[in-house]
Design brief:
- The protein is an alpha/beta fold.
- It folds into 2 domains: about 220 residues, 3-Layer(aba) Sandwich (Rossmann fold), CATH 3.40.50.150; about 80 residues, no CATH class.
- The strands form 5 sheets. Strands 1-9-8-2-3-5-4-7 form an 8-stranded mixed β-sheet, sandwiched between helices. Strands 6-13-12 form a 3-stranded antiparallel β-sheet, with helices on one face.
- Strand 2, helix 2 and strand 3 form a beta-alpha-beta unit.
- Helix 4 crosses helix 5.
- The longest helix is centred in the N-terminal third of the chain and has 18 residues.
- The N and C termini lie far apart (about 50 Å).
- The C terminus is likely disordered.
Length: about 325
């Protein structure tokens, strides 16, 4: 075991190196959450990594970095691992030895048919914590699903519309509203790039401002970009110099912009995608909400874009609209 390096020396850094060697030099209980999206061992074309290890060798390697992720995570922290179900079944057995299960998040992210099997659509994120009693967790909400043509709610709530939350329901452990990056113009030269708003959701529900987020397979920077947009500190690790340079360049151009007033949120295509439930009362005044909440069946609440200014590369909201916040759940 090498000399331990204080976590402060790694804060807001993108480190080129073997994730095992780097994490082994970090003291235990040092970071608030760890998130890993490792190579899938499916012979994908990474720039500097051979994605075709022998079965047992791959699993032994995975066990080692999973153990390190758990070790360096604080008692109040969480451990997230993204992969396909095949490998997650093994990862769960490793995590069960060292941490506590909280959720298996099913992410509906369809891919092309592969033949001789069901069309792959399910990716997963294992969500474990270091201490069930101390771990941070915030309930989060996403917008109501609606018909793209007529605007009506897709789910029939019957006579319960009056009690619906104006923004949207609490997020469950099945995520169907976030899609993979499918267009090449939005992708870097990386075979497994995740959308930033996926990581923003993970970070919003498990951290506070200035908490430390560590990704041992940072690739082209999705996790650290999400962290910086939400004003979290970050540590990114990758073995490939090309990916490290791409990430450094991208993160240098980011700022803490995922915010309305003093509330951290997640945007996607200029729409608010994820909020914390506890922040709704602060956010409600910046939405146009019908006086009759039952109109939510066909009338989507709207974020008042006229109340937002872009100034100094940060979003600042002008109080041009004020409506009494609803207590709907």
């Amino acid at each position: 075991m090498g000399f331990r390096i204080m976590i402060n020396e790694y804060i807001d850094q993108i480190i080129q190196g073997d994730c095992l060697e780097v994490m082994q030099n970090i003291p235990g209980n040092s970071v608030d959450i760890t998130f890993a999206d490792p190579p899938f061992n499916l012979n994908k074309k990474y720039n500097g990594y051979e994605d075709n290890k022998e079965f047992n060798i791959y699993l032994e390697w995975c066990k080692q970095w999973i153990y390190e992720m758990v070790r360096i995570t604080k008692p109040t922290g969480s451990i997230f691992v993204h992969n396909i179900p095949k490998w997650l079944t093994y990862y769960a057995s490793f995590l069960n030895e060292t941490a506590y299960f909280k959720h298996w998040i099913a992410w509906d992210a369809p891919t092309a048919p592969m033949g001789k099997s069901l069309q792959p659509s399910l990716y997963g994120i294992l969500y474990y914590v270091k201490d069930l009693r101390k771990s941070k967790f915030y309930e989060i909400r996403y917008p109501h699903k609606r018909c793209r043509k007529c605007g009506y709610l897709l789910k029939d709530y019957g006579g319960k519309k009056a009690s619906l939350h104006p923004f949207g329901p609490l997020v469950s452990d099945v995520w169907t509203d976030i899609h993979r990056i499918k267009h090449n113009k939005y992708r870097d030269e990386h075979p497994c790039q995740l959308p930033v708003h996926l990581l923003e959701r993970v970070i919003l529900m498990s951290t506070d401002e200035n908490d430390i987020v560590l990704d041992p397979f940072v690739g082209t920077g999705t996790t650290v970009i999400a962290a910086k947009r939400l004003s979290r500190r970050f540590v990114g690790i990758d073995i490939d110099e090309k990916y490290v340079n791409i990430t450094k360049n991208k993160v240098s151009r980011e700022s803490s912009i995922s915010k309305v007033a003093d509330v951290w949120i997640s945007f996607y295509l200029n729409e608010i995608l994820t909020i914390r439930d506890k922040d709704w009362m602060k956010l409600a005044p910046y939405f146009l909400i019908s006086e009759n909440i039952k109109n939510i069946d066909f009338e989507k609440i709207k974020f008042d874009r006229q109340s937002r200014l872009i100034e100094n590369e940060e979003y600042k909201v002008l109080p041009t609209y004020r409506k009494k916040a609803t207590n709907s759940k």
